[in-house]
Write a structure and sequence with these properties.
Pfam families: RE_endonuc, ResIII. By secondary structure, the chain is an alpha/beta fold. Helices cover 31% and strands 20% of the residues. The protein contains 30 helices and 41 strands. Strand 29 and strand 30 form a beta hairpin.
Length: 991
């Protein structure tokens, strides 16, 4: 079974990694240490604070105050790859600084097991060895896992893994000690175990594990930092590692509740008169923040679609525990009291409840048979324990699962195997191995799966799917498996295999040869476990506690992988989440939780350099002077905004102020709230078919550059124009003058522009730099060398041999090629043979699909009707201009028109990107001929307002359509915000 294929250099992960590295820009490395110790990191003067401020400003987290501690925080939402991010950070810190000993601290055993599997995986080691052009050489991770010593009578004076880690001297490896919170707080770590009498020492010095580990000058990485409150015992023990730096990675951090204040500083109260509380995360030296909103809006995780059971007649009645005396429990429902003893069924109180008993009780806590603990004042929803509700939810989850299989296992570009996770409390009913329990959860579940498969096999024609489903039908028991905490001590071979596969072997679970696709658990998997292909989570029973909704859905947020174990990100994927009627507000709570992390945007009172840079980031073609000129009427002579000046600035440059302001529509939604599929008007596709097949032909971009010498001259021209954009890394010498002032010695830092010496510190040697740049930018090493040599007097490349320069050249040269195409050089296209099908509109045989994904047509929805000539029955769009085209201004000459789905027609452009227009029209001309029209809709006033990149991409499209127009004439037009489509069509007819 192939391992996961890891994707390198994902922007959101790279920003986090680069932010950590930037902390150590221009530091001094004290290597006068023992061979088994990390070098000591030393900062001159205010360098550390200066670096931190620059990083926060660049990452827009300047609202978080800095501290003088050694803690560095990286905030990344669940499912965005923080474990991979801190792993690559270790490789980078090793490469750049020579740090080779890290301690990774996790809160629980389940997270520890997942981290261990990740760090030890062969595919991860292969990834770092082969996917980075030799950047890390043969460096690999050596993992040391600290486990509890089970034989208390023969405990060693110190765990062997700690001894090995402390004594390790091989700097060709990254040595990582993995430890959980329970172990950190153990007597073993404090040196108080039996067998540790202090007579045996590591390094002839240390008998206490904490002290031995501290001697290595480690870097500590803390996973899930919200589990380690700074006032808690575990955090105090973490300090005993005496880490040079503590890197905390998590989606949530330790928090504190504060009163919400109004503009006058007074407490805000709700309708009941209670003070509204706000939860504030307590960051320390926050470097980077990837919020939940960023993750959802940027499609870094799946969206969420909630299925909530609505029970007619449920008037909100709840069973409340009001008293406990140790022998009897008193419940109340609708003012009527019920007394239950140990072993009695709660269906005495409400008939909707199935098998739910009082298991244990004392005078303060009652335990139900499903493991939920109740205290006085706690309530439960009777319908949450109804088998009728349970069965309905389970049936719907099974039905939706096979809908997903139909969609994901017949897709083009690699099949995706979906998994469904069920949270249950009826473990006995699920582990009914001999089918002895009539109507058990397992029996009912298998009957439902069997019925659904038989129903679908009657009409399914896809050969692979028929075989896949028939295999499942032949042995229903193999389609599911479970993991519960008591399974750790179970000796049943079948259960042991299930547990190992679910907990430790993601690859096998995702194999199409493995029929298992349903996983059952009792909240045990809610933390520390995830699988990228979990597409459904069904809560058949409440968890019994109020938890973060984001944490609940976290098991299924990651983007999926296909059958080749490669991450798939070209679709808008959703996680289906099923809850009962006790959580009718699930969508609201989750949305509120996501939006609560919104950072209040900065309100600028003046046109500052910071604001100009913010605008230039969104509009890179604009110079400072151009921006100032456009805003001249909105500021006074001191650049202070006049009344409403900043509001008008935001209207002029809207892209500069697009941020994680709030969650995009449709990222979290109720099932049925908006159509996920759009029906196609099949008869109309026949009119569009010829044009659709032509524009879906594959084409290769050709650079009309005659030889390598001409390419060299182009590359040299790019370097000359951009030499000032490279960033050097190095160290400066800071002079301190010691003198006597009022009888006391004092030091004054002195700097001179003439005397200051900047000593470069290169993170790569010249050959490594050329090799990596060659492989990243796809330019011959010899050509690169010739270019740098030719510009040696203009660009001293020896000062810039670092990763940042490679990224700058790659991105910069790609953009330069796009902007200078058709001017500095020509481009052309050549057709690629083969079938164009399947497409977004057709199957493998070229037959029109009955429906397509709504998300492919647009992110906004209008419940009104489209024009009669539109290819689809519903209105999805991305802008008001598109909306008007679809719903207004009917043109009688139009036979059929369609919105072109996102990424369906990928026209290659210079520099490596692609481009896709917006609309395709078939028009009947006055002469009776057919006009094929492709339209690009732009919400800008005219072509002068188009960014240069957009203008160049449109030129590429025109060039390609001229090529295919040799067989069929195709006219390409751009529609601007004030252009009605009727005028665009009229203009096209005149060509």
């Amino acid at each position: 079974m192939a391992g996961f294929t890891y994707e390198k250099n994902l922007p959101h992960q790279e920003r986090a990694i680069e932010s950590v590295l930037a902390v150590f820009d221009r530091v001094y490395l004290n290597k006068n240490v023992q061979t088994d110790e990390n070098p000591l990191i030393e900062f001159a003067g205010s360098l550390k604070t200066d670096n931190l401020q620059k990083i926060q400003q660049a990452n827009n987290v300047g609202d978080i105050a800095l501290s003088h501690s050694n803690v560095l925080d990286i905030s990344m939402e669940t499912g965005t790859g923080k474990t991979y991010t801190y792993t690559k950070t270790m490789f980078e810190l090793n490469r750049v600084l020579g740090v080779f000993k890290f301690i990774v601290v996790v809160p629980t055993l389940s997270i520890k097991a997942g981290t261990k599997n990740f760090l030890q995986s062969a595919s991860l080691a292969e990834h770092f060895r082969k996917d980075f052009a030799g950047q890390y050489g043969e460096t690999e991770i050596e993992l040391y896992v600290v486990e509890s010593q089970k034989n208390k009578a023969k405990k060693a004076f110190m765990p062997s893994e700690i001894v090995r880690f402390v004594q390790a001297e091989d700097k060709q490896k990254i040595h990582v000690l993995l430890i959980n919170a329970g172990m950190i707080n153990s007597d073993t770590m404090a040196g108080k175990d039996k067998g540790n009498d202090g007579s045996r020492l590591i390094k002839d010095k240390f008998s206490v594990p904490f002290e031995a580990l501290a001697s290595t000058n480690p870097f500590v990485i803390v996973d899930e930092p919200h589990k380690f409150d700074k006032n808690g015992v575990t955090w105090q023990n973490i300090q005993k590692f005496n880490a040079q730096f503590i890197l905390r990675y998590g989606a949530t951090f330790p928090s504190v509740e504060v009163n919400k204040k109004d503009e006058n500083g007074k407490n805000v109260k709700n309708e009941q008169g209670k003070i509204v509380k706000l939860t504030i995360q307590k960051y320390e030296n926050l470097l980077y923040r990837l919020s939940a909103i960023d993750a959802f809006n940027d499609d870094l995780v799946k969206g969420i679609r909630a299925f909530t059971e609505q029970i007619d007649g449920d008037n909100g009645e709840r069973i409340k525990l009001i008293d406990l005396d140790g022998k009897e429990a008193t419940f109340i429902l609708d003012k009527q009291a019920f007394k239950l003893s140990k072993g009695e069924n709660l269906n005495r109180i409400h008939q909707a409840i199935s098998d739910l008993f009082v298991s244990e009780m004392n005078k303060s806590v009652l335990v139900l048979s499903n493991g939920i603990e109740l205290k006085k004042g706690d309530t439960i929803n009777p319908y949450s324990y109804s088998d009728t509700v349970r069965d309905k939810m389970m049936r719907q989850a099974i039905r939706e699962h096979f809908v997903l299989e139909k969609e994901l296992l017949t897709r083009n570009g690699g099949r995706i195997k979906p998994l469904t996770l069920f949270f249950i409390d009826d473990i006995a009913g699920y582990r009914d191995e001999k089918n002895q329990l009539s109507g058990s959860l397992k029996t009912v579940f298998e009957q439902m799966v069997k019925a659904e498969l038989e129903h679908r096999l009657q009409t399914e024609n896809d050969e692979f799917l028929r075989q896949y489903w028939q295999t499942a039908l032949n042995d229903i028991a193999k389609t599911h498996g479970g993991y519960f905490s008591q399974d750790n001590s179970d000796k049943d071979d079948k259960i042991e295999q299930e547990v190992n596969e679910i907990l430790h072997d993601k690859e096998t679970l995702l194999s199409l040869a493995n029929p298992r696709r349903f996983v059952f658990s009792k909240w045990t998997l809610r933390e520390g476990w995830d699988n990228p292909n979990v597409f459904q989570i069904c809560k058949l029973r409440s968890s019994g506690s109020e938890t973060s909704k984001l944490q609940e859905v976290g098991r299924g947020l990651r983007l999926p992988v296909n059958e080749y174990m490669a991450r798939v990100k070209d679709n808008a994927f959703f996680l289906n989440y099923f809850v009962d009627n006790s959580e009718t507000d699930f969508v609201k709570k989750l949305t509120d939780e996501v939006n609560s992390a919104v950072v209040k945007p900065i309100v600028f009172t003046a046109l500052t350099d910071e604001l100009i840079k913010k605008i230039q980031t969104a509009y890179p073609d604009l110079s400072k002077k151009q921006i100032r000129n456009q805003l001249a009427d909105l500021t006074d002579d001191d650049d202070v905004f006049l009344e409403n000046g900043f509001a008008e600035t935001k209207k002029l440059f809207p892209k500069a102020f697009e941020s994680s302001g709030s969650l995009k529509d449709g990222k979290i939604k109720r099932s049925g709230e908006k159509a996920e599929k759009v029906k196609m008007r099949i008869a109309k596709y026949d009119e569009l078919k010829a044009l659709w097949e032509i524009i879906n032909q594959k084409a290769l971009l050709q650079y009309k550059i005659k030889d390598e010498d001409e390419f060299l001259s182009l590359f040299i021209r790019y370097l000359k124009e951009n030499a000032d954009k490279f960033t050097a890394t190095g160290i400066r010498t800071v002079q301190n003058k010691i003198c006597v002032d009022n009888g006391l010695l004092s030091a004054t830092e002195t700097r001179s522009l003439n005397d200051e010496v900047f000593e470069p510190i290169n993170t790569l040697n010249y050959r490594e730099f050329l090799l990596k740049l060659s492989q990243t930018a796809l330019i011959q090493m010899q050509t690169l060398h010739k270019a740098f040599f030719a510009l040696r007097d203009v660009l001293e490349i020896s000062k810039f041999l670092n990763e940042r320069t490679i990224h700058t050249i790659k991105a910069g040269f790609d953009r330069w090629l796009l902007l200078n195409s058709f001017n500095a050089f020509e481009v052309g296209f050549s057709r690629v043979g083969g079938s164009v099908h399947p497409t977004k509109f057709t199957d493998n045989q070229g037959n029109a699909l009955t429906e397509v994904n709504a998300s492919d047509l647009g992110t906004q929805f209008d419940s009104g009707s489209p024009l009669a000539e539109f290819l689809f029955e519903s209105v999805f769009f991305d802008s008001e201009l598109e909306h008007a085209n679809i719903t207004k201004n009917q043109v009688k000459e139009v036979i059929v028109f369609t919105k072109i789905p996102k990424n369906s027609i990928k026209i290659p452009v210079a520099g490596g990107g692609t481009y896709s227009p917006d609309f395709a029209y078939i028009i009947k001309t006055s002469s009776g001929d057919t006009l094929n029209l492709i339209v690009e809709s732009k919400n800008v006033p005219d072509d002068q307002s188009l960014r240069s990149e957009e203008q160049q991409k449109i030129k590429h499209a025109e060039k390609l359509f001229n090529l295919v127009a040799s067989d069929t004439k195709i006219v390409f037009k751009t529609q601007f915000e004030k252009d009605e489509i009727v005028n665009v069509i009229k203009n096209a007819q005149q060509q």
